[in-house]
Amino acid sequence: MRRASVTVYPVNIVMELSQRRSFSAAESLAVRLGESVFGVAGSAENPLPITADFDAKPADHARQMCSAFSMRMKGYPPPTDYAMYVEYFLGGEDRTPIRVHYYVTDYDGNMVDYGIVGPGDIVWQLVRPQGEYDLGGVIVGKMMGNN
């Protein structure tokens, strides 16, 4: 039986006063997803030109991102069965992980999964993220059903 494939777009690292795209975080997450959730996972070579209101409440921001990501994928489908876009929110000078948002569409751009994961979630408590790399483990754990 063929397992699904996913393209992970460069991760948006959101800090208090700035944001940046991380290709290495996307590559690391793709490897972990390929080993555990999807049959084949790879990272995209180009960042996505999408954004949402970062001053909004997390749930409102996530809804805006779901819409923006879905629309982008409908116009520019991924080379795989699914597409994933992720945001890591970090705080303070030590860049402490605050929460992650993830969004998954199918090839046609239909939203099939999304989530906001933070310190109140079981998977966060199991992984105990200390940095960016650990946040990939939070997403993999959540997608594997560790709510």
Q: What gross morphology would you assign? A: globular
Rg calculated over all Cα atoms: 14 Å
**Strand-pairing-aware structural class:** alpha/beta
CATH hierarchy, class: Alpha Beta
Number of helices, counting only DSSP H or I runs of 4 residues or more: 4
Share of helix among residues? 25-40%
What would you say this structure looks like, in words?
This protein has 4 helices and 7 strands; from the N terminus they run βββαβαβββαα. The chain is α/β, with parallel strands linked by helices. The chain has a single domain (5-143), classed as Maf protein (Alpha-Beta Complex). Strands 1, 2, 3, 4, 5, 6 and 7 form a 7-stranded mixed sheet that branches. The protein is globular. The protein starts with a strand and ends with a helix. The model has no long low-confidence stretch (mean pLDDT 91).
In short:
This protein is α/β, with parallel strands linked by helices and 147 residues long.
Labels describing this entry:
Maf protein; alpha/beta; 147 residues; seven-stranded mixed sheet; 30% strand
List the helices and strands and how they pair.
Elements: E1 5-8, E2 11-14, E3 19-22, H1 23-36, E4 40-43, H2 58-75, E5 82-91, E6 96-106, E7 111-117, H3 122-127, H4 132-143
Parallel strand pairs: 1-4, 1-5, 2-5
Antiparallel strand pairs: 2-3, 5-6, 6-7
